[in-house]
Write a structure and sequence with these properties.
Blueprint lengths: L10 E2 L14 E3 L2 E3 L6 E6 L4 E7 L3 H19 L3 H17 L1 H12 L3 H21 L9 E4 L2 E9 L2 E5 L5 H14 L3 E5 L6 H10 L8 E3 L4 H10 L5 E5 L2 H12 L4 E5 L5 E4 L5 H13 L11 E5 L3 H13 L3 E2 L15 H16 L3 E4 L14 E4 L6 H4 L6 E7 L2 H9 L6 E5 L3 H10 L4 E4 L24 H7 L1 E9 L3
Parallel strand pairs: 1-15, 8-9, 8-11, 9-10, 11-12, 13-14, 13-19, 14-18, 17-18, 19-20
Antiparallel strand pairs: 2-3, 4-5, 6-7, 7-21, 16-17
Helix pairs in contact: 1-7, 2-4, 3-4, 4-5, 7-8, 9-10
Bound molecules: nicotinamide-adenine-dinucleotide.
Nicotinamide-adenine-dinucleotide binds next to helix 7, strand 11 and helix 8.
């Protein structure tokens, strides 16, 4: 028997009168903010209060043209800088973010509604991304120069790709921008970046604060819709590579648009991370891991621990432990305490999508063991939710809900656990919970996911790669592999025979 569902979650309401430091108006092109060619704007909302925070230009194809022209004009000089010169600039960017940490945390929290703990982690991770890359960009290695054909000497150059288009999502706005900007600049490329139409503020603020330390045109930011600005960046003949972090559908559109110019594509897309809990696992640790890994950023996380597969012999014990963990979670708006763990959904549209997914769960006859309801506004808050009695193949196991919803299903054998965990179009991340050394080594090798944690979930470090397989895309963020992804090799072979 699992515990009865008795919890009534409450939202700690928003603190009124908080002000944030907004970026200047306009598009950031050629080293300064310039007016958009469009007079239409997009409204930026605080999802914890439903108040309007700002308006930014709904950019146009002409804005993209101007930004790409600036990036093209800047690319040769930037590519000719030494790794040390670029590294020095990346260090200065990390220092600027750190010096302005509070400003960035407050602005990010206001634009996303995320709790202080998540905003702080985002900004710390952005600082570390620039710091790590500043060092890593000076250590690129390749095959040694040498004679691989008789009387011919081969040299391998690692070169920048050129102009890189970047398209970012709303869940970690500054951090996802940092994951791209740092290695792309570190590898010697110039950038045209489109932030999410819902969360452009911290990216624009970063541009404002680093405008003086980057040569004009090296970084350009164009706000606007994916279907207009994102589409034009993806198809533009002078953009040499396009990188998107976003949903599978948007990744498919970017890849299709990019195909007309055969440019390189770097895709970091959605996920539906399985959490495989074997009968020998430390169940308490696994429940704590799902609490933090499943509900971080209110589950609006591509690697969220959202789909638990637990051995049938321990499902009741595990479910009780997880309900105990999750029902004590604190829900609130930014500014209502350092202990807040869950904020709102990013927008009314996303809130309605998550509630519709919960309606589907009810219609499918699954059990909502905890939560499952919207919370009183203002703000788009939804209770942390645990769904149980999920049969194999259920819709909730296959579709990314991207909200505070964790489902639990059971398995009988190791073979079944591995097969069911792999039964998803996604391949971003997974975790395995066991105290058995053989299982700890063998199970990850058979799971089709770019990251597999053992007895942990959602721990990320700048030195190690992040990226998916299958529908979650290809390309790696973080680590030396990101620098490789955003550069190209050239072989020069010299005939030195007589
Ligand atoms: P989204 O796909 O709606 O939007 C992402 C970006 O793509 C936005 O900037 C959007 O404007 C742009 N876009 C939309 N249509 C486009 C088009 N036709 N051409 C070019 N650009 C277009 O995603 P979202 O809702 O902002 O973010 C959530 C999604 O991102 C989830 O699926 C999540 O799993 C994924 N995500 C993945 C990672 C990862 O590392 N793999 C990290 C964070 C988020």
């Amino acid at each position: 028997m699992t515990l009865a569902h008795t919890t009534q979650f409450q939202v700690r309401g928003p603190v009124s009168g908080t002000s944030v430091s907004l970026p200047p108006d306009g598009q950031f092109i050629g080293g300064k903010f310039v007016p958009s060619t469009s007079s239409t704007t997009m409204t930026i909302e605080n999802p914890a209060t439903e108040e309007v925070l700002a308006a930014v230009p709904a950019g146009t194809v002409d804005d993209v043209e101007a930004a790409v022209a600036a990036a093209v004009a800047a690319k040769d000089a930037w590519a000719a800088t030494t790794p040390k010169e670029r590294s020095d600039i990346l260090h200065r960017i990390s220092n600027i973010i750190e010096t302005n940490r509070t400003l960035f945390e407050e602005l990010e929290a206001a634009n996303t509604g995320k709790p202080a703990a998540v905003a702080e982690d985002d900004i710390s991770s952005a600082v570390d991304t620039f710091r790590f890359t500043a060092g890593a960009a000076r250590t690129l290695t390749s095959l040694a120069a040498g004679d691989y054909a008789t009387e011919h000497t081969s040299i391998i150059f690692r070169e920048p790709v050129g102009v890189v288009g970047v398209i970012t999502p709303w869940n970690y706005p500054l951090l996802m921008a940092a994951w791209k900007i740092a290695p792309i600049l570190g590898a010697g490329n110039t950038i045209v970046l489109k932030p999410s139409e819902q969360t452009p503020l911290t990216t624009l603020k970063l541009a404002e604060l680093i405008a003086d330390i980057l040569p004009p045109g090296v970084l350009n930011i164009v706000t606007g819709l994916g279907s207009v600005v994102g589409q034009r960046i993806s198809e533009h003949p002078d953009v040499d590579l396009v990188a998107i972090t976003g949903s599978v559908g948007s990744g498919q559109k970017v890849a299709a648009a990019a195909s007309s110019t055969v440019k390189r594509v770097h895709l970091e897309l959605g996920g539906k991370a399985p959490v495989v809990v074997f009968e020998d696992a430390d169940l308490d640790a696994a429940a704590k891991g799902v609490r933090s890994g499943g509900f971080w950023n209110a589950g609006q996380e591509c690697g969220a621990a959202c789909r638990v597969l637990v051995h049938e012999s321990v499902v009741h014990e595990f479910t009780d432990l997880l309900i105990r963990e999750v029902r004590s979670m604190v829900i609130g708006a930014p500014g209502t305490g350092a202990d807040v763990e869950i904020g709102p959904m990013i927008s009314r549209a996303h809130y309605e999508r998550v509630l519709a997914a919960l309606e589907d769960v009810r219609r499918d006859g699954l059990t909502i063991a905890l939560g499952g309801r919207p919370l009183d506004g203002p703000g788009y808050f939804i209770e942390p939710t645990i769904v149980t009695d999920v049969p194999a193949g259920a819709a909730i196991s296959r579709t990314e809900i991207f909200g505070p919803v964790v489902s639990i299903e059971t398995f009988k054998t190791d073979e079944e656990a591995i097969q069911r965990a792999n039964e998803t179009v996604y391949g971003l991340a997974a975790s395995v919970w066991t105290t058995d050394a053989t299982r700890a080594l063998n199970t990850p090798r058979r799971l089709d996911f770019g990251t597999v944690w053992v007895n942990s979930h959602l721990v990320i470090a700048s030195e190690v790669p992040w990226g998916g397989f299958k529908g979650s895309g290809y390309g790696r963020d973080l680590s030396l592999y990101a620098l490789e992804d955003f550069s190209r090799t050239k072989h020069v072979m010299i005939n030195r025979g007589s």
